[in-house]
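Technical note accompanying the year-one report. For the benefit of new consortium partners, we illustrate the data format agreed upon in the data management plan: each record pairs a sequence with a structure-token string. No post-processing was applied to the example shown here.
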Amino acid sequence: MKRFSFGSLLGGAVLALSLVLPAGMVSAEEAMPTLTINGVGSAQIAPDTAEVTIGVVTEAKDAAKAHADNAAQTARVQNAIKALGIAERDIQTTHYDFSPIYDVKDNGRSVTTGYTVTNAVAVKVRNLDSVGKVIDAALANGANRVDSLEFSASDPSAAKNAALADAARDARSKADTIARALGVRIVRILNIYGDTQSHSPRNFMPMMMAKEAYDAATAISAGELSFEASVNISYVIE
């Protein structure tokens, strides 16, 4: 269920009075005094989707073995994730690297001592109750790297609209306050500009995880997604 809470943030207000120019040089609308206000607002929504990036890193002296070990571990990881009900379309390779390991000798020469292979996949989890299970299953089946965890909402439009409405109310409240203080009256809106931004909670985990860290179950808290909006409104005053 989506949850919203609305809050207004204090912002600045600018009173812009038109310059008095010779007759005929500006239009009647341009000559009107205006009050330009910035309003801000926010809304929160519960996420319903998570994306966790999981990797397998292997090392071996022989290139073929490093590659084979990584391929086998990665296959086990992906099969374990699919067994939890994660669809094939929700597993995507995001990084693959095959690199030699060098040892620099006293004489400055670099000698290849082995090879390292990294294979990372992003897993989209549509049931948030399964996020911890996905991580645990991956680590238990060969993954040794968890890079990031990010939450999102499949349909954030209602929260974005709520944040914009909150920002518009904030702008009007500020405009009314300033108009009363100056002894002027708001006639109408001349123009409006609005924009929204989202702030997703992210949980970055250690890049490499020791085998001992796999024993405990992973607890995940989704929290809330916050959407912030700002509007810039110019009012005609008299």
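Partners are asked to follow this layout when depositing records. Strands lie at 7-9, 13-16, 34-45, 49-60, 91-104, 110-125, 145-152, 186-199, 202-203, 225-237.
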